[in-house]
């Protein structure tokens, strides 16, 4: 599942970079260039921690386009009340992630793809759920996805490398990107992303 999630998130990232399907790093605060994509060496894993905007960019992808619509099923162990609803013990509960990720009570302008929300300090979210649950793309608690660490490291590093080495644009040129998703093993783009890739000189 970790490989599937990593692949799908990369596709979403290429599509979302400037809203037109074109991955063009901006100076210093650019989505994937950020701190120091050097020209004399390939970006390495140790560089990622300095790339603040890249981290925010990936977090916003996970918020807007979670890898799946629902968390793993959890069983209620004791009666409780959630949002005015009585939940008896013994039933199975699933959480609908887009409902949390686009809740205006939790997020400002939730429909907008805006990585700056995490850079400015206005908003934050711990994707592990340790310090609070505002988004849980990999689940939370004891049943959190064991592939979280691998998937997030791969997504950050591969996106940085792909943008360092290549220019990405929609194909055919000027075509609109359809962000509609469908649920397979994970959520994938309903219409597969087509891209033009050119090496950076």
TrEMBL record:
Basic and acidic residues: compositionally biased ranges: 14-29
Keyword line: Heme, Iron, Metal-binding, Monooxygenase, Oxidoreductase
Region annotated Disordered, chain positions: 14-39
Short name of any one Pfam family annotated for the protein: p450
Cofactor(s) this protein cannot do without: heme
Alphabetical list of Gene3D superfamilies matching this protein: Cytochrome P450
Family statement drawn from the similarity comment of this UniProt entry: Belongs to the cytochrome P450 family.
PANTHER family given in the database record: CYTOCHROME P450 77A4 (PTHR47944:SF19), CYTOCHROME P450 98A9 (PTHR47944)
Listed name of the protein: Uncharacterized protein
Organism: Brassica cretica (Mustard)
Lineage: Eukaryota, Viridiplantae, Streptophyta, Embryophyta, Tracheophyta
